[in-house]
């Protein structure tokens, strides 16, 4: 399997090679063609000049005698070689003085530029490439000809210095192309490294997290997608860490909760077996009560774990919440009377139908009522009310359980819905509380699409409200 860095580098290399190669090739072609156009323009002017000067010469002298000097002057600094023949093709002047007296046919010269004077053919002149002059026979080399409409031969002769200039320009294009390519590759490598480095770091950290090291975090080095990925990873690791901590805490809490009743049961049974205690009603009741605590704890734990994992199956039906509240009030009223706590209800006469699970709604209300009774001393009062209420623009019902009991310290109030959270731990446990009641209430109301919240003043009392949508 190719590593990502090799893939990016390969793609980069290919792109650079292709773009630099194509651009340099196109630039070379363009330069050469523009250069040729430029030469053609210059040469056409030169040829026209030569043609008109020679025409004037012939007009004046009516012969080509002594034309050589003029021809040399005409060639001037232009490269190549000028040849002049008379109308019959006999070479009468040659800037290199080699072919004078010979016929143009001997050298296969064709496409000569015509010199006409008053409609009479006076001769032809030829402009040959410089290389032909060197060899004396290869005059065709290094010259290109094209016939234009006027009948003049516009010859493209690229002289040696011009060819050198063209080569130089082409070389420069290639060199700058290669340099640009190298710079692009260098930058690309730098960029690849910047992408690969955080990915590798992320990969290493992910392996650590997979091994259970949830405290692992990665450094967020940029504000781009890789930075966002690093942030998401850190969030994920943090929530895994929190989950792991709460799982460990939960296990410790469960072990702790199970130990107390089990210790009591074991101690009592041991005492009976050792003959220290009588196997009488008192000791057997202790064992029965602690067993009941264990059973309740296990049932609460099961409810909570089902609710938290979203597997709590609600038997949703159209239920009259007013009827449920009334029934719960009458059930708690007996216990309240025993404790000399008065119970006041404010429940509408008519029915109030919502969609919900009657068993769970009974459980929510019973939990809140038994808490209120447990934390209200004799002479106190519990008020149970039901009213219609909009919550976040949604219509629903609100049930309130208010007491004027001991209240909850402000520091504990935000945590009372947490699992196993008790305000006064030792006393609450001795009173049978497991610290799961309110956690269950919260899970159950939320499973119904509702909310629960508490208000409390220490020493004055507490009010627990839950709202359910209609
Ligand atoms: P428990 O089963 O121990 O009562 P809960 O989850 O029902 O656990 O309650 C958590 C804690 O909240 C309790 O330990 C108790 O101190 C406090 N609490 C609950 N209801 C009341 C109330 N009406 N008045 C005062 N404190 C309360």
From TrEMBL:
Q: Name one Pfam family in it.
A: HATPase_c
**Which UniProt keywords are listed?**
Kinase, Membrane, Phosphoprotein, Signal, Transferase, Transmembrane, Transmembrane helix, Two-component regulatory system
> Which residue windows are coiled coil?
none
Gene Ontology CC annotations of this record: membrane
Per the record, the domain of life is: Bacteria
Record-linked InterPro entries: HAMP_dom (IPR003660), HATPase_C_sf (IPR036890), HATPase_dom (IPR003594), His_kinase_dom (IPR005467), HisK_dim/P_dom (IPR003661), HisK_dim/P_sf (IPR036097), Sig_transdc_His_kin-like_C (IPR004358)
Q: Which reaction does it catalyse?
A: ATP + protein L-histidine = ADP + protein N-phospho-L-histidine
Q: Which Gene3D superfamilies match?
A: 1.10.287.130, 6.10.340.10, Histidine kinase-like ATPase, C-terminal domain
All residue ranges annotated as the HAMP domain in the record: 193-245
Stretches assigned to the Histidine kinase domain:
253-470
Question: Transmembrane residues, as ranges?
Answer: 173-192
Its EC number is: 2.7.13.3
Q: Which residues form the signal peptide?
A: 1-26
Q: Please name the GO terms that the record assigns under molecular function.
A: phosphorelay sensor kinase activity
**Name by which UniProt lists this protein:** histidine kinase
């Amino acid at each position: 399997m190719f590593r990502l860095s090799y893939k990016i580098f390969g793609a980069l290399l290919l792109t650079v090679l292709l773009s630099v190669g194509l651009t340099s090739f196109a630039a070379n072609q363009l330069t050469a063609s523009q250069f040729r156009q430029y030469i053609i323009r210059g040469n056409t002017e030169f040829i026209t000049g030569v043609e008109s000067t020679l025409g004037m010469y012939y007009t004046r002298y009516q012969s080509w005698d002594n034309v050589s000097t003029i021809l040399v002057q005409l060639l001037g600094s232009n490269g190549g070689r000028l040849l002049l023949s008379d109308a019959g093709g006999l070479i009468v002047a040659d800037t290199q003085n080699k072919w004078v007296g010979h016929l143009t046919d001997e050298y296969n010269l064709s496409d000569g530029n015509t010199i006409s004077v008053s409609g009479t053919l006076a001769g032809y002149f030829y402009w040959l490439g410089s290389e032909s002059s060197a060899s004396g026979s290869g005059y065709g080399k290094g010259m290109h000809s094209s016939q234009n409409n006027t009948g003049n031969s516009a010859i493209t002769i690229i002289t040696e210095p011009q060819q050198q200039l063209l080569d130089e320009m082409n070389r420069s294009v290639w060199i700058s192309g290669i340099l640009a390519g190298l710079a692009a590759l260098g930058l690309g490598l730098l960029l690849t490294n910047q992408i690969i480095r955080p990915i590798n770091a992320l990969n290493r950290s992910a392996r650590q997290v997979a091994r259970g090291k949830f405290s692992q975090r990665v450094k967020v080095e940029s504000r781009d997608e890789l930075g966002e990925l690093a942030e998401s990873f850190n969030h994920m690791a943090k929530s895994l860490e929190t989950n792991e901590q709460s799982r460990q805490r939960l296990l410790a809490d469960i072990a702790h909760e199970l130990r107390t009743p089990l210790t009591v049961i074991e101690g009592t049974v041991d005492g009976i077996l050792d003959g220290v205690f009588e196997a009488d009603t008192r000791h057997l009741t202790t064992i029965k009560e602690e067993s009941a605590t264990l059973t309740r704890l296990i049932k609460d734990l099961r409810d909570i774990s089902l609710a938290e994992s979203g597997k709590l199956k609600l038997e949703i039906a159209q239920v009259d919440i007013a009827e449920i509240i009334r029934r719960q009030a009458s059930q708690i009223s007996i216990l309240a009377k025993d404790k000399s706590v008065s119970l006041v209800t404010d429940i509408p006469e008519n029915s109030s139908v919502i969609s919900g699970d009657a068993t769970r709604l009974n459980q929510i209300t019973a939990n809140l009522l038994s808490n209120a009774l447990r934390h209200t001393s004799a002479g106190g009062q519990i008020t149970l009310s039901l009213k219609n209420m909009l919550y976040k623009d949604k219509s629903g019902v609100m049930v309130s359980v208010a007491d004027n009991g001991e209240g909850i310290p402000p520091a504990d109030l935000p945590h009372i819905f947490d699992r196993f959270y008790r305000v006064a731990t030792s006393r609450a446990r001795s009173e049978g509380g497991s610290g799961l009641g309110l956690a269950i209430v919260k899970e159950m109301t939320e499973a119904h699409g509702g909310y629960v919240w508490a208000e409390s003043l220490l020493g004055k009392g507490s009010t627990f409200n839950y709202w359910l949508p209609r």
